[in-house]
Amino acid sequence: MKKLFTLLAMFLLVQAQAQTINFTPFAGYVFDDHVDYSNGYGTVKGGFIYGGTLEYVIQDVSSVGLLYQHQDSQFDGFTGLAILPTNFDLGGNYMLLQGTRYFPVANDKVKPYAGLGAGVAWFNNKATEESLTKFGWDFHLGAKFSPSDRFGIKIQAQLMSAVQAAGGSFYVGTGGVGTGVSGYSTIYQFGLTGGIAIALGH
């Protein structure tokens, strides 16, 4: 699936030669999320995030885009009958196909917007180099401020989610004892971001 999103990104870049494509590098912060799972509980720690979007603009009122977002985080939790600690550094990534609707207002330099995205979320346990890939989605809303046709500033609030499907486990070894986050839990992280929108193409 990651290859499919890469091909889509290449297609959007080619289309930029004839249409308006917005490239928006961004950075921000996401907050902690508490998760309960079948054999314990834990917290996905908040922290700094960064990434970028390629956004294909359709008649200035809507867009289809591709988002990549990365977060270096930590999972702090307890699992198992003995309440064993399960703490490890966590790398979180999202690659989502997004649809966004822009809403006209009196000031044409300001464009409020809202949208949804869906795709893949994958996580890396940096202690064991284990990885976990799940379905991911987002809801985002914000505003774009455009002082010129080529550049704009985007301020956004977002909810990112990684759905933990039944049967999946994410393991870390602790003193020879296998512990992990079993299925039946979903990550929800609220965040705030800001970015610079750069118009490509004509």
UniProtKB/TrEMBL annotation:
The keyword Signal applies. Residues 1-18 form the signal peptide. Gene3D superfamilies: 2.40.160.20. Keywords: Signal. Residues 6-162 form the Outer membrane protein beta-barrel domain. InterPro entries: Beta-barrel_OMP, OMP/PagP_B-barrel. SUPFAM superfamilies: OMPA-like. This is Outer membrane protein beta-barrel domain-containing protein. It comes from Solitalea koreensis.
